[in-house]
Amino acid sequence: MSPTSPTLLEVRDLHVEFRTRDGVAKAVNGVDYSVREGETLAVLGESGSGKSVTAQAIMGILDIPPGKITGGEIIFQGKDLLKLKAEERRKTRGAGMAMIFQDALSSLNPVLSVGQQLGEMYIVHQGMSKKDAKAKAIELMDRVRIPAAKERVGQYPHQFSGGMRQRIMIAMALALEPSLIIADEPTTALDVTVQAQVMDLLAELQRELHMGLILITHDLGVVADVADNIAVMYAGRIVEKAPVHEIYKAPAHPYTRGLLESIPRLDQKGRELYAIKGLPPNLMNIPPGCAFNPRCPMAQDICRTDVPPLFEVTYEGLTADRRSACYFWKETLDADADAAR
């Protein structure tokens, strides 16, 4: 991915809320991020941080009601998707952007063969005959390395393993060769070996087709080798943005630092695994100031009253293209630098 590659997607000040009997849950609170052609952006955070809701808003598949987009812009290839009519918006799905869901078994139709489900993309979007669509389905299954694709095209989702079902989901997303793919926890419930295979396949296909990729995950270990940049979310906001290698080298937000310290490491065998204290906030009652302040070991009075903006992080040895929503980002980096000495 080149820094001069065209921007595919820009999410600007996006706000999404869910109105329920118990109150209003503010799921996304001013999210900004962008993705260029050929770039992989990993969006990280605990469950409930707003990662998937942001993706659903981008794709136009948010459940409305109870969900509602209350502000912001989603600019895809120069057009604000939120201003398009429903039919125009529908045409962007599949051909312009596609999504890989985390639970392949529940996302696939159990009463249709995988060949029918793959072929439907071509029948609906390109008006192909069933025969030609079946041939395309076999071609797609070969492309994502499903063995004996010609013999298995008539089989049903339950006849495939979890890893193979995830490959079918990837094939469906690739069918119309979209410019952007959103992969929402694509390795959930897969064993470590299969996770690596799925991630390698995604990375290889992305390089081949020069697509943009948004990879949504809570697992920092999954993205280390495939992402270009990382956006860390907490309570519906981006709290840190950075190139992937710099996040691992020097996190500039206490929440990111906590996530990294929670990863099991071979050089810490026998030590108790670190865990961030407390729980993510109730989105119907987000704390004032920095939403992370009740769990943050560095929180001070200003953190409990004022919402921090995304500060530009300028620190020796780090690139300029970094942001952290922490009043004490420098102290966080200083603490890591001192520990490394």
Describe this protein's structure.
By secondary structure, the chain is of the alpha/beta class. The protein is 34% helix and 23% strand. It has helices spanning 51-59, 86-95, 104-107, 114-126, 130-143, 149-152, 162-174, 192-209, 220-223, 244-249, 254-261, 329-340, and strands at residues 7-20, 23-36, 40-44, 67-76, 79-80, 97-100, 180-184, 212-217, 229-234, 237-243, 311-312, 323-324. The strands form two sheets. It has an eight-stranded mixed sheet with strand order 6-7-8-3-9-10-12-11, sandwiched between helices. Strands 2-1-4-5 form a four-stranded antiparallel sheet, covered by helices on one side. Helix 8 links the parallel strand 7 (180-184) and strand 8 (212-217). Helix 4 (114-126) crosses helix 5 and helix 7 packs parallel to helix 8 (192-209). The chain is globular. 40% of the residues are buried. The model has no long low-confidence stretch (mean pLDDT 88).
Descriptive labels:
eight-stranded mixed beta sheet; single chain; globular; 341 residues; alpha/beta
